[in-house]
From TrEMBL:
Residue ranges of domain Fumarate lyase N-terminal in the record: 26-298
Protein name according to UniProt: Argininosuccinate lyase
UniProt source species: Candidatus Falkowbacteria bacterium RIFOXYA2_FULL_47_9
Pathway(s) this gene product operates in, as recorded in its UniProt entry: Amino-acid biosynthesis; L-arginine biosynthesis; L-arginine from L-ornithine and carbamoyl phosphate: step 3/3
GO molecular function, one term: argininosuccinate lyase activity
One GO CC annotation: cytosol
Keyword Lyase: yes
Amino acid sequence: MAKLWQGKTTTLHPLVEKYTVGNDYILDMRLLPFDIEASKAHAAALVKAKVLKKTEYQKLVKGLNEILALHQSGKFVIQQSDEDCHTAIENYLTKKYGDLGKKIHTCRSRNDQVLVATRLYTRKKLKQVSSELIKLQRVFLTMAKKYEFLPMPGYTHTRRAMPSSIGHWAAAYVEELINDHMLLETAYKLNDQNPMGAAAGFGVNLPLDRKLTTKLLGFQRLQVNSLYAINSRGTTESFILSVVTKIVMTLGRLANEMIWFTTPEFNYFNLPAEFTTGSSIMPQKRNPDIFEIVRSNVNVIVALQTQVKDISKNLISGYNRDTQLTKEPLIKGLGIARRSLEVCALVMSKIKPNRAVLMKSLSPEFFAVHETNRLVKKGMAFRDAYRHVKEHLADLKIEDPVKALKEVVSLGGPGNLRLADYKVSKQL
């Protein structure tokens, strides 16, 4: 079948075709349902512009639904010669309906086709990331409430510093994940703009109702300037991946902490055997591979974000084929983020703190600051109190460590949020 741009005498060297198409025809199997959705909306706009009759529109929608059904059953294949899902769809409609099938591309360029399909795909994936992010928020909020005053050493410089609690530690993740979701909302808002009708970047000279397609596709707003719509490809993906990077950075810290805190040397948490793997040579080993993969995937997404930024920077206005290469890192990055959040929520919901070990960790020297402030309350200057405690650290005794911990760590204390004040994010 013909390419969308191909003339009767146009030929393309097979090596050039293979190189320029790359794996786009494979990646587009993910985008195909969204291009079908966009094509239906575009066909409706063509009816309003009097390019299509209602009967023609109905035939095209029927053909588009057939393609979707074939795709869902694994029977619709995009060939390398098609280049992408857009050509495959048009070729199918043309083969089925003849000249009517050729009308579907009126007032359209593959530039805005790719843009709108990618936006619709990304919108769905951002909602999935949102759902998994909220699940993890709930896991940590449950943990914070359940273990609010179960002791846990607090660290600075990777050394024991002050008394903390599992509740305080878990609530820190709740708050960070809430902030991560705020960034996700911004990425969602940026993505939720309709570029359809921008064509090749300079609009069309037929009365295409862009507000209609915006409404039909459920976009929040219209991307007004046609040239900017094309220019935004790559830069929008770059911002989305920068937000995804921040989310997985949160997971990377969690993964690193859990790798350490579940070792026999720390033993603060018990990692269930179902989440560990074994060694091919050491029968006794149980390994936290799940967290190591999460930690490593942070670097993968950082690289994907950098890849998109580097591809997109310094391009002149208008479409540049360079941006074709932003599709794969976007798809990969969103997939990795969703799966990483999903697996972290699962594992953290099953992990249990080792109470005996954590209670024993509450040794007197942890309360040096607490003792210093006790002396300050009695009227001693802070610096004198500091030196006194430092010089008598070996003699420091805390009669009721748990009571002292509550005074130090209480999440309901002055200047601190109560756990009841934490509200998980709203689903996108």
